[in-house]
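Sequence in, structure out.
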Amino acid sequence: MSSTKSTLTFFGATGGCAAATLALALKAGHIVTALARTPSKLTTLLTSTHGIPQHVLDSNLIIVKGDIKDITAVKKALLSKDGRIVDIVVSGIGGTPALQWSLLRPVTLTDPHICERAAATILSALRELRQSRRDDPLQSQGEKSAQGPMVIAISTTGVSTKQRDVPFLIYPLYHWLLQVPHADKQAMEQVLIADASSTSPAIGDFAIVRPTLLTDGVAKGTDTVKMGWEYPEGKPEQSEPAPGPALGYSVSRADVGAWIFEQLVEGEGKWGNKCVTLTY
């Protein structure tokens, strides 16, 4: 575990997995910035549900009021207290489900492209910030790396194009009900993968976390979470063979958040540029 405290930015911070990670980061003394449309909703969640004392929020949390589609607000959220670009970005952006009259696609989202657009906005904001630093090198002094921050994106199982990543018994129902949300998550992943593969990426490493069906159950502990992983679409097998996804039916948001904190925020970086599945 690293002894250095990282600076982090959270998007979709009131979501279950992201909120659990954010709370653990605050308890560990990391400096956190979060974008929130309603800041009071986030502070209430952190104090009441996660037991974060108000003095910790006052000292370690900056909340930027705004929407993920507003690049000005996103740019502001990507800066820590000292004005430097943060070390780690966690995106827990997700769509709001909505039913529609369709036998083929009964479940849609109020914004069917929210995750894809959020990823694109974050990358655009990072490019603009990093360009401003290249134009004024004094701004970048003290930042950990000339590379961009690590981006952790919370996705879902059911989106792998390489192999089946959900149990066979629920495979037909899973893909029938969740076609629209899955397409949005796939598009989000491709935005990150394309950027990391470009000649001038906005980000450093990325990690795509694919939990199976999420529950609000009590955390069982990360030692109960099964992990599997594969390389992203379009990336060939490398020297380390990928074991493939771990198959399971559900996992709690609390345990997903704890795993992200332990392995990605305070871990040793072994999950960079991989797609990790989490389940019980």
